[in-house]
Amino acid sequence: MLIDYSDYKLRQREYLLRISRAMTSRLELKSLLRLILSGAADMLDGEAGLIILKEDGTFHIKASYGVSPELLRFFEPFLVDIPSPSGGVSGWSLPDLEMRLNLVSAAAGIPLRQVIALPLIAEGEFLGVIYIFRTTSLAFSENDRQVLASFADQAAIAVRNVRLYQQVLREKQRLNAIIENSADGVMILDPRGRIQVFNKAMANLTGWDPKDAIGKPCWEVLRLRDAQGNQLCKENCPFLSPSDSDSPLYVEGDIYRGDEKRITVGITYSHLFDEEGRLTNIIANVRDITHIREAEEMKSTFISAISHELKTPVAIIKGYASTLRREDARWDEETLRESLAIIEEESDRLSRLIDNLLEASRIQAGGLKLEIGDVWIPRVAEKVVSSYSRQSKLHHFEVAFPPDFPVILADEERIREVLENLVSNAIKYSPQGGTIWIGGWAEPDKVVVYVADQGIGIPEEEQERIFERFYRVESPLKRRTKGVGLGLYICKAIIEAHGGKIWVESKPGKGAKFIFSLPRQEVGVP
Ligand code: ATP
Ligand code: MG
Hints:
This protein is of the alpha+beta class. It has 4 domains: 5-177, 2-Layer Sandwich (Beta-Lactamase), CATH 3.30.450; 183-288, Beta-Lactamase; 298-364, Helix Hairpins, CATH 1.10.287; 373-519, Histidine kinase-like ATPase, C-terminal domain (Heat Shock Protein 90, 2-Layer Sandwich), CATH 3.30.565.10. The chain is built from 13 helices and 16 strands. It has helices at 5-24, 29-43, 97-108, 142-181, 200-206, 210-213, 218-222, 290-324, 333-364, 377-389, 412-428, 476-480, 487-497, and strands at 48-55, 58-65, 114-122, 125-134, 185-189, 195-198, 249-257, 261-273, 279-288, 373-375, 395-400, 408-410, 434-442, 446-452, 501-506, 512-519. The strands form 4 sheets. The protein has a 5-stranded antiparallel sheet. The longest helix has 40 residues, at 142-181. It is elongated and about 140 Å long. The protein starts with a helix and ends in a 7-residue tail after the last strand. The mean pLDDT is 89. Magnesium ion is lined by residues 421, 424-425, 483, 487.
C-alpha cells in the first residue's frame, strides 16, 4: 500500500484542529475523548480504541471506540498493573502487552491482533492510557506511535482542563457556601456600591430578601444611622473616601429591621483591587453588636441605679440615728419607736437590695445552686406576709391556701426570696393601697402559687420584658418608687432553676397577678 504522506499529515492536522475547537466549545469530557479516540483510530487504521483514566488510584474506561458496550468488561486486563511513566512517554511501555491482548480477544471473542498504548501525561501528571487496536496483523510503526502521541497530548490537555475547571467550580461553590453560611453578615459590593452578594446572615439582620437586595445600592438597603439618628449612608458614605482605602475601614451604627427593630452593627469594609490597582470590589463584613451596646448601657444604668438605691437607705438610717442620739433632745416613747421602726425598715430594704445584687451576680455567673428540702409554701407565705404587713398600713393581706396543700421539694430560702420580691412589688406598685392576695392550689404534677394586687397593672407589651435584668416600666411611678429592676429577674431565675414557670396576668389600672408553678415532687402532708 502506498501512502500519500502529505495527505496523511493534512488529515492529522485537521483532526487535531477539530479536537482543539471542540475543547473550547463546552463539549463534555466523554464525547471529547470519543472524538480523540475515533480520530486516532482512523489515522492509525485501527478498528478499536480505549481511553482509561486514573481515579482514586484505580483505572476506569472513560471512552471507547469500535467496541460494543457489553464487551467492555472483558478489557479488564488493560486496566491493571499499569506502571507509572517516571521517565516520560518515550521510556514507557506496558508489560505483557501481547498476553493481555490474547486474553481480551479470547474472552470477548473479537480477533484483536495488534495493540499500541501510550500514557496520557499533562504537566508531569500521569492521567491514564490511550489504546488503539487492529484486527489485522500489521504491526504499529514508529510513525504510528508519533501520530498517536499527538492525540494523547490532546486527550491529556482535555482531561486536565476539565479537572481544573471542576476544581475551580468546587472551590467557588465552597467559597460561596462559606460566605452564605458565615455567622456575620457579608455583602460584596461593586465599585459603585451596588450589592452583588448578600448572604443569609445579612438577610436576617436587615430583613431584606437577597433577591431584592442584589443590584441595589448598599445605602438603600443598610440605611446606617449614628446614635443620634443621623444618616451615615449615601451622603456620608464611609467607604467612598479613597484616601485611606488600603486598610480596612470600621464603622459602627444602627440599622432598622422593618423600620422598627434597632440593631447596632459594626461594619468592616475591605477594598479589593486588581493588578492595575483599580478598585474591583468592596467586601463589607457586618456584625451584630447590639448585645455589646446593650451591655454597656446596662452597666451605666446599673451603676447609677445601684448607687442611688444604696445611698438612700443609708442616708435615712444615718439621719434618724443622728437625730435620736442628739444630747440636747429628749424623745418621747412614740417618736422613738417610730424612728427605730424606720431605721429597721430601711436596714431591711438595704439588706434585701444587697441580697438581690448578690443573687443576680450569682445567676449571671451561672452559679445558682439550690438547697433542696421539704417546703410547705403556705407557711413561707405567712412569714413573708407578717413581716411586710407591719410595713404597710395601706394594704390588706389575704392568704388563701387549701389545708391539704402539699409539701414539695424545693429551696425554702429561695422560695421565700421569690415571695418577698412579689409581695414587695405588689405593695410598691399599688400606691393607693388595697388588698393583696396570696394563695395557691395543687395540681397532679405541680403546685401553682399567685400574688395579686389592685395596683397600677402592667401594659401587655411590657409583660415579658419586666422579667429582664434592670428592666422597669416607664411611668411617673417609676421615678417615685425605689428599685433597680432586679426582683423579677431573680424570681424567674429561681423558679426556672426549680424546673417551674413564672408569668403575669395584668391590665393597666386593674392590678397585676403574678403566678408561678413548681413541679410537684410530693413528700407528704405536714
Ligand atoms: P427591685 O425589685 O430590683 O427593687 P423593681 O421592683 O423595679 O426593682 P422588678 O421587681 O424586677 O424591679 O420589677 C420590674 C418592673 O415590673 C417594675 O419596675 C415595675 O415597672 C413592674 N412591676 C413589677 N411588679 C409589678 C406589679 N405588681 N404591678 C405593676 N407593675 C409591676
Ligand atoms: Mg421588685
